[in-house]
Amino acid sequence: MEEVIVAEYHADWVKQFKEEKVKIAEALQDLEASIEHIGSTAVPGLGAKPVIDIMAGIKSLSDMDQKHMDRLMAKGYEYVHKPEFPERLFFRKGKWRAGTHHLHVYELDSVNWQNQLLFRDYLRDHAEILNNYYELKKELGAKYKNDRPSYTAGKEAFIQEVISRARENRKREHHAENE
To answer: Nearest-CA neighbor of 42 among 33, 55, 29, 24?
Structure first.
């Protein structure tokens, strides 16, 4: 099993994302993909597993064909079939269990797309919640040092709570704008 390492935040993660964004945009150029930096490496000040999570939003997953897969492979991304997640396509850059970048392809504006952005943006805007999440990650990393699935599962309730809060905030803001 892969060892869970929660590293201190590193500003270089943004640079790495920007470099990969260009490559991914080239590979998916005819799909008019929207590309976002997601996950903990996208939140300044938040420690993370040093893997850059990237999300590409396209009109429909069925638009992704072999030429796109081949272009991504030429950029170093390997498709990893995950039948348990039919709402996304997943690609890894780097060796198995030692990936450096993860690319998640969703339908643009789908619930999964929105949830990723809600979570990231809420953490960026709420330092106390960011700190609570970082503490949880460190605790889980120490407890499940060699058990990544348990580490990931241990974060799920916190993540869902933050997404729920973020969604409620957005509804309130939208309601206030329309008054």
So the answer is: 55
Examine the pLDDT at 1 and tell me if it is beyond 60: no
Half-sphere exposure of 50 (CA within 13 A, CB side): 12
Q: Tell me the pTM.
A: 0.91
Nearest to 122 by CA among 151, 154, 159: 159
Residue 53 lies in a domain: yes
**pLDDT of 112 higher than 80:** yes
Residues of the chain above pLDDT 70, percent: 97
* Per-residue tokens: 133: 């999440």
Is residue 2 packed enough to be buried (19+ CB in 10 Å), middle (13-18) or exposed (0-12)? middle
Tally of domains within the chain: 1
- Domain assignment present for 21: yes
For residue 54, count CB atoms less than 10 angstroms from its CB and return exposed for 0-12, middle for 13-18, buried for 19 or more: buried
For residue 68, give the nearest of 13, 9, 28 by alpha carbon.
Answer: 28
pLDDT of residue 170: 86
Which of residues 53 and 173 earns the better pLDDT score?
53
Task: Give the chain's length.
Answer: 179
- Give Cβ neighbours of residue 149 (< 8 Å, ≥ 6 apart): none
- In this prediction, residue 97 carries a pLDDT of 62
